[in-house]
Amino acid sequence: MEKEKNESFEAIRRGLLEFSVLTVISKGEVYSADILGALENTEFKTQEGTLYPLLSKLRRESLLDYAWQESGTGPPRKYYSLTDKGKERLSDLKKYWEDITRTIKSLGK
Amino acid sequence: MNKVVTINLNGRAYQLEEAGYEALRAYLDGASANLADDPGKAEIIADLEQAIAEKCDKVLSPHKTVVATDEVKNIIDEMGPVEGGSSEKTENESARKTSSGPRAPKRFFLIREDAVFAGVCAGLAAYFDIDVTIVRIAFIALTVFTGGIWILFYIALALLVPYADTAEARAQAHGEPFNAEALVQRAKERWGESYERVTGNKWDDLVGGMESKHEQHMKWRQMRKQQRQQWKQQWRAQRRQWNPAYGLVRAIIALVWIGALISLITKGAIFGVAVTVMPIWLAVFLLFIVFFMVTGPMQASQSYGYTDPTGKYQYHYDYHNDPFDGFVGVITAIFVIVALLWGYREVPQFYSFVHHPIAGIKEFGSYIKYLWSQR
């Protein structure tokens, strides 16, 4: 049952993944493992194989940017942050999301 | 005791058990195939390698310097499938994954390798995924039942259906998945072969011989890079040669031809000019021959040959860019069958020819002689 539910909601989750990733990054400079960690116990649990292509796409759309930071162990890491355009997109998405949920609620009445 | 391969992940060396190395290589090759159209491909691959390196660090310690095969497999599972950049592609990808037994769209091809005569039965057997012997028996039975007319169907297919002479066509003939991943896998097998032929060394020696593992790996990568570039160039050269006007011209010819055929069968005339010098069925037959005489050389001019890295001559015909290939094949096959059945029912000469071929040929010969003497 749980699995069935997961599969039929897959499209919704896929569509909202970008939204959720932008939201996580909006908290400040984050490392890709931080993003995965933040999503870990949510509906948006994601693997590197999906996240990295998405991050690359968002960066190409100049919604986010990264800076190299030295790490104590191992090579330097990429820390992602939202650009102004990215912040704008996120607030648009939030507003749109609120509109949509309101619409759905009103449709049910 | 297992062989160990040293790899370079984003500038740091890691030691993997050989089977783990193979799995990881397949994963990264698959990733780079799925990202082929993604402009950020190099960056994503570097990020993925980085993440794999970090996961390797987690399982390593000063007393454990080799990543075991199972650990590599766990890492690959954690990483998850690498999906292409565009959302459209991602959906296709997941659709293909969830459907049981992914199979590529099949096409009907003649198969030279298993052929007794032209490979029609072998092609049908591959297409319907049944034993070729059953198809052959069915063909012989149908030939007997139809008093020989089925042979004409066989000949029509042999003339109309192309041979599966490219790797792509062969894969389609058998319905094997033809995606980038499978292609990479098959290509790799061929690289191994060609490497052995060119250098005289065993492929396995290159992968795990006496030289430094790192050096070997770098050499292997370099060779692959060169091969990949070579292929890309070939693909581009082929793409460029395709002429879009050809499709249009061929479509016009096909339409004119169909018009002529319909008017010939229904009115006994081609565009108002009545056909009186020969029976209609012969005119239909000649019309087919004319059609293939016109389109045959055109089709040949759109095919290209080149010599592949192993020195074999490859013949390539771009089926995908030719929307009328399948159309013309199906339409002509239908017309051939209809024309033959019509001839069988309506033309006494043809009927008697089918039932008494030898006498029929003699009769046909005397008919031609008669036509000749009438001039």
Strand and helix layout:
The complex is a heterodimer of chains A (109) and B (375).
Chain A: H1 2-8, H2 10-25, E1 30-31, H3 32-40, H4 48-60, E2 64-69, E3 77-82, H5 84-108
Chain B: E1 4-9, E2 12-17, H1 18-34, H2 41-59, E3 66-67, H3 69-79, H4 87-98, H5 120-128, H6 132-145, H7 149-160, H8 167-174, H9 180-199, H10 203-208, H11 213-241, H12 244-267, E4 269-270, E5 273-274, H13 280-301, E6 303-307, E7 313-317, H14 323-346, H15 348-355, H16 357-374
Parallel strand pairs in B: 2-3
Antiparallel strand pairs in B: 1-2, 4-5, 6-7
Q: What features would you highlight for this structure?
A:
heterodimer; A: 109 residues; alpha+beta; 3-stranded antiparallel sheet; 5 helices; 13% strand; globular; B: 375 residues; mainly alpha; 3-stranded mixed sheet; 7% strand
Could you describe the 3D structure shown?
- The complex is a heterodimer of chains A (109) and B (375).
- Chain A is α+β, with helices and mostly antiparallel strands and 109 residues long.
- Chain A contains five helices and three strands; from the N terminus they run ααβααββα.
- The model of chain A has no long low-confidence stretch (mean pLDDT 86).
- Chain B has 16 helices and seven strands.
- Chain B has a three-stranded mixed beta sheet. In chain B, strands 4-5 form a two-stranded antiparallel ribbon.
- In chain B, α6 (132-145) packs across α7 and α15 packs antiparallel against α16.
- The longest helix of chain B is centred in the middle third of the chain and has 29 residues, at 213-241.
- Mean pLDDT of chain B is 69; it is low at 86-104, 238-242, 303-309 and 315-324.
- The chains are: A alpha+beta (109), B mainly alpha (375).
- Chains A and B meet through α4 of A and α2 and α4 of B.
